[in-house]
Amino acid sequence: xxxxxxxxxxxxxxxxxxxxxxxxxxxxxxxxxxxxxxxxxxxxxxxxxxxxxxxxxxxxxxxxxxxxxxxxxxxxxxxxxxxxxxxxxxxxxxxxxxxxxxxxxxxxxxxxxxxxxxxxxxxxxxxxxxxxxxxxxxxxxxxxxxxxxxxxxxxxxxxxxxxxxxxxxxxxxxxxxxxxxxxxxxxxxxxxxxxxxxxxxxxxxxxxxxxxxxxxxxxxxxxxxxxxxxxxxxxxxxxxxxxxxxxxxxxxxxxxxxxxxxxxxxxxxxxxxxxxxxxxxxxxxxxxxxxxxxxxxxxxxxxxxxxxxxxxxxxxxxxxxxxxxxxxxxxxxxxxxxxxxxxxxxxxxxxxxxxxxxxxxxxxxxxxxxxxxxxxxxxxxxxxxxxxxxxxxxxxxxxxxxxxxxxxxxxxxxxxxxxxxxxxxxxxxxxxxxxxxxxxxxxxxxxxxxxxxxxxxxxxxxxxxxxxxxxxxxxxxxxxxxxxxxxxxxxxxxxxxxxxxxxxxxxxxxxxxxxxxx
Amino acid sequence: xxxxxxxxxxxxxxxxxxxxxxxxxxxxxxxxxxxxxxxxxxxxxxxxxxxxxxxxxxxxxxxxxxxxxxxxxxxxxxxxxxxxxxxxxxxxxxxxxxxxxxxxxxxxxxxxxxxxxxxxxxxxxxxxxxxxxxxxxxxxxxxxxxxxxxxxxxxxxxxxxxxxxxxxxxxxxxxxxxxxxxxxxxxxxxxxxxxxxxxxxxxxxxxxxxxxxxxxxxxxxxxxxxxxxxxxxxxxxxxxxxxxxxxxxxxxxxxxxxxxxxxxxxxxxxxxxxxxxxxxxxxxxxxxxxxxxxx
Amino acid sequence: xxxxxxxxxxxxxxxxxxxxxxxxxxxxxxxxxxxxxxxxxxxxxxxxxxxxxxxxxxxxxxxxxxxxxxxxxxxxxxxxxxxxxxxxxxxxxxxxxxxxxxxxxxxxxxxxxxxxxxxxxxxxxxxxxxxxxxxxxxxxxxxxxxxxxxxxxxxxxxxxxxxxxxxxxxxxxxxxxxxxxxxxxxxxxxxxxxxxxxxxxxxxxxxxxxxxxxxxxxxxxxxxxxxxxxxxxxxxxxxxxxxxxxxxxxxxxxxxxxxxxxxxxxxxxxxxxxxxxxxxxxxx
Lengths: 518, 295, 284
Fold this sequence. Notes:
A: alpha+beta; Dipeptide-binding Protein, domain 3; 2 domains; 4-stranded antiparallel beta sheet; B: mainly alpha; SBP_5 (chain A); Peptide/Ni-bd (chain A); Solute-binding protein family 5 domain-containing protein (chain A)
């Protein structure tokens, strides 16, 4: 606090005389103040897999392989590795970039890469678990060849090595810093090699990143970016309209009118390649019959949800594939999720549904409009004859077997047809571990999954994925997909910024060429 | 108090159930529990906790993996500023309104004073906060709406917090003044021909001012509960958010420290108020606590 | 207004603001009791195609929904009525329980004196030294979220005030000549309690009750802000405000309607409480 207590008293007393006071000074045009809805507990590149930390990591770290966030289709480019080639079907060798300065002043070398990637390939500590399951379960180890060469070894030949290594959770951090500070302190201010370095960080509240003068690539276009958590919607929108921040995230369609009405501001919108969904617990006896779970799906009018809650800007899913995503275009003829209450009732009768209570458990404030969606779905289920109620849950960690449902999102983590499926429904994911999802009961599943995950022939992969989408949706029914939510960012009109392609939703790129303040 | 908090926190759940959305395997859970010493029997954990306290070690946050003291030290300034300024504003507004309500009791201005006081109180904090943001931030653009960069940023949060507290000051002071005004020495003063204002300020206000000190203690709970919500709306990263964040993920060390510090502050303030009483009026030795109940 | 004038005939000495407050409180109570019969719609029934309609008289209003609809197209008149019913029910039941427990403990402490009194008053002080919010959050975590748990937590919010009040009254009354005389004549404690203590205690308790009620009503809305409390989709005034706050920029009526109900209720109860206190306090 830089002001005296006397000033403060004066300020408090002057509340009603405020008309005469000047507005707070406009920020330096090279500083961007961002109001975010959720913040992060740590900035650990390897451990933070959530939608919240994803906002920040792109500023801070680089990966061996980078992806072009501007091209319509995925295009991989040299990152911290300048070249790579296959040594054998399961071994890829990467030549590292010389002279890359890390934020702690050290030079990036094979030790940093081994340290960083080994943490996600073979997590030795409990707290790095999620990452491993979601992304890197097919990765065995990373070996140092010489100071500037590493080899990455996979269990099976993996056509997705580049895609996976370009994810921010494969970001490279300084081993020297972690050795000196310990992982816990390093996680508060990690030394990556990105165009910005951590200036100050207050977990769950505020992060300031500053231009890193020694960045190996094109210099960052901004001096500073400050990410402040403004979790409440109305104050966040007001902060932008008012000039307290320059850029805000997460403005649902029905909140956008005041921003559209204001000159000098602009909105950037998209419909994420991401599902908001309920995972169904296949082992819960009341819903163990797939016909019941299918009925729960057919009872839902997804178009009504998408148009009412999201002003028509959300997409109603028709299966586990994204409309508008090039890799899924070949599936556009499939509609596996019609709104069909009559069929839902028929399935319930056939399955002998006898009024068993279904409990829709969800987290109240985690996903935008998650609470509204749940209340609408409850009515739709009741309409076809389910006896159902809602239950707000604080965390799903404990005793997950007792729940019927939990709310979840399935974002496209990497730009491949399997990019949203693999990271959430693979063997190593919690849904399999906790037995909510029981693929072993469906012999057709594993061969199809393997064919998509490890196949190399594009047409064969497409055929297998089509069959996988149909199998999961109509026979296994492990989920209720609700919608692909819309997202909007609002900013001052002099900020040129677009939503990036080919990277996971919520990533906020402010690198050279990706943001421009005039 | 230590036992209650320690046990209460543990009964309410396990931090690893809330920190890791995707759950943990049994081995991972065991490993994490061992890291934070949660695998030992509860009595041993408690003994270790008390032992560490004795050496001034308050532990490490399980969620953020850094010292508990750091978390609170970061959050303290903004909470302190908010609490002190809100308290000052509460008194600055509440005392005159309380006097007005007593002196003009049953008349128009007395009613207005009470009405104003209760209007702020009768509305949920967050509604008032958002209304203030929309009016003074958005519509009028007089004041910044979120954050804590400058003193101006604290104006709206302070007003919101004070609005909820003014009512009890007004009500309390009015009650005290009415009581004092009915007492013999005031009647005598009036009978001897002293003018209204001189009686009011010389006898009534002075005697009523003392009990108002008690309000400090009374308001603390309201101050803390209110500041949590206000911090959230105005994006002020203060103690309230630290504390509730810790409760939500069952971050035992953070939670335990919060309760302890809170209890300590309550005790210190109440002792301080009692001491002031004793100094100001030797006839009263332990009046503070019982008087509160009559407020 | 006819109700007000009728009341004034019955009680000519009633100041008009109090008469108004009493009338209003009575109307609100009747509305809460009759909610299931007078609400025009099912309060929880979502109608996605009719969401966020403004109140009658504004552009885009739907004729069936006088106060408009909320984020899920639910009728705000019906939700406000049922919300009033639930919130008032929780507040009243919770306050009554808190009052009974607190008064009982206070009486016990005042009657028994000695170590029991000290022990009981330590509990009372401990309650004050414990952040109430923590109690609530932990309570909900341990016992789950149900309406009865919320009621129990609400009752915990104010019991210590009643305990102090009751103890203070007992302590002062037992020194009075008439009580001492009764005791000297061999009256049992139960008789003294009924004949002497309760009549004197009743007025301050009622006052405390009316003054504590608004705080309890607001508490329920704080819980909703934090996303805990009564489970959706049930309407409570606090939940309506908590859920609607996101729409305050674009659809303020979703918050304004329940806020006005809370405001009216708390202002009436406050006014009545203060008036009762002034009347009960012979010194003033």
